[in-house]
Amino acid sequence: MSKEKESVELVVVQKLENALSAKIEAYFAGVIDSDPDVLEELLKSKNSEGTRRAYRKDITDFFTRMTGQRPNRDSILEFLHLEGHKATLVVTKYRAILAEAGLSPNTINRRLAAIKSLVAYGRKLGVCNYAVDVDSIPVQAYRDTSGVTEAEFLSVIKQCDRSTLAGKRDYALLLLLWGNALRRNEVSTLDLKHFDGSKGTLSILGKGKLVRVTINLPKVTVLAITDWVIERGGDMSSSRPLFTSVDFQNFGHRLTGDGIYKIVKRLFKRAGVEKHMSPHRCRHSAITAVLEKTDGNVRKAQKLSRHAKLNTLQIYDDNRNRDQLEMSELLMDGLD
Predict the structure, then answer these.
(1) Taking a C-beta distance cutoff of 8 angstroms, is the pair 192, 237 a contact?
(2) For the stretch 13-34, what's the b/e string if a residue is b when 16 or more beta carbons lie within 10 angstroms of its beta carbon?
(3) Which of 24-33, 292-301, 315-324 comes out lowest in average pLDDT?
(4) Would you call 27 a catalytic residue per the annotation?
(5) What are the helix (H) ranges across the chain?
(6) By CB distance 3.0 to 4.6 Å, which of 28, 147, 182, 238 could disulfide with 186?
(7) Active-site option among 183, 184, 281, 284
(8) How confident is the model at residue 143, as a pLDDT?
């Protein structure tokens, strides 16, 4: 091999070595964090504020019980850097502590799921190389979908004093919870721009959704919301909350999900309804009433409830018509 050719090959090899050893973060170094705050990044990935709040609470409980301190970037990274079998042992002990404390299986499983999500996100960010192999606690798949009867609900609606500002708001609010089976967060996130009285529509942000969907409103609901908005007066900008507080201390502030819960609880208690009512039980009541009126047509009920799976509505229908009791009674025919 000639010296000239050898020299050329050496240059090529040197260039190749330089290329392989070059920093690949030359352009992205400013946005790459070698020690990320995994919890904060996980929470940012969740769409719902309620979900973020629940994850933070559950993960905080884990670190507080197991380390005696609230979680921080360093303690989270230490947990994620553990060997897989050691991390699994820690989580297994945590599950046993929760069980001994008398927490329900659903609560325990929710907290385990939050930890597993933290670990999974750590793997995604490249700071963890294991998965938590801890089984959830078996639970009976049952949902209490009971609410109140149609007559009871309508009686509460009719008791709203529509000669007052609070009465007009509560009347419109109950009509949405009943006539459209809305969730409280779907109501609390509404602004004026989301209500179109001329078309009789409302643009809502459904559970776990990123894009709003348009639903149609009954005429009585359109009139009730319009009446409330006009009576409230004041700022009519499109970004103003559709439902606001009317008490002296918080007047004009957005009505939160917790605020809606308290209003519903107060209205039903005032009407003498013994059952503990919440916005979600209002939704249960509406869905059950639709199933009653349509003879168990779950597909029609799905148009109202917007459930992704028909199986969920089947639970409502089974609870409504008590199929098991009916079948058991059939087997007792012929007995005194």
Answers:
(1) yes
(2) eeeeeeeeeeeeeeeeeeeeee
(3) 315-324
(4) no
(5) 3-21, 38-44, 49-67, 73-80, 84-100, 105-124, 150-158, 165-179, 184-188, 219-232, 257-270, 279-293, 298-305, 310-321, 323-331
(6) 182
(7) 183
(8) 55
Domain residue limits at 109: 38-124
Quote the tokens at residue 236: 């009519």
Answer yes or no: is pLDDT of 142 > 50. Answer: no
Q: Is residue 283 annotated as a catalytic residue, yes or no?
A: yes
Q: Which of the following is catalytic: 94, 121, 171, 316?
A: 316
Q: Is 186 in contact with 243 (CB distance < 8 Å)?
A: no
- Specify whether 183 is catalytic: yes
Note whether 99 and 163 are same-domain residues.
no
Residue 18 within a domain: no
- pLDDT for 240: 95
Instruction: Determine which one of 158, 209, 293, 303 is catalytic.
Output: 209
Q: Is residue 185 part of a domain?
A: yes
Is the model's pTM score more than 0.85?
Answer: no
Handedness of CA 35, 39, 42, 43 (dihedral sign): negative
- Give CA–CA dist 262/202, Å, rounded: 23
Choose the final residue of a domain: 106, 124, 142: 124
Kindly report, residue by residue over 18-41, the tens digit of the pLDDT: 666 666 556 666 666 667 889 999
Domain annotation covers residue 281: yes
Q: Give the active site residue among 280, 300, 306, 320.
A: 280
- CATH for 290: 1.10.443.10
Does 119 share its domain with 75? Answer: yes
How remote is the C-alpha of 72 from its chain's centroid? 25
Is residue 316 among the annotated active site residues?
Answer: yes
Q: How many domains does the chain have?
A: 2
To which residue do tokens 């020299």 refer? 7
- Structure tokens belonging to residue 136: 């959830």
Amino acid symbol at 193: K
Contact present, 175 and 157 (Cβ < 8 Å): yes
Catalytic residue among 95, 111, 283, 284: 283
Q: Does 62 fall in a domain? A: yes
The reply to whether 170 and 292 lie within a common domain is yes
Rounded to a whole number of angstroms, the distance between the first and last alpha carbons of the chain is: 110
Secondary structure element (H or E) that encloses residue 307, with its range: none
* Structure-token match 């908005």, residue found: 229
Q: Which residues pair with 110 in a beta bridge?
A: none
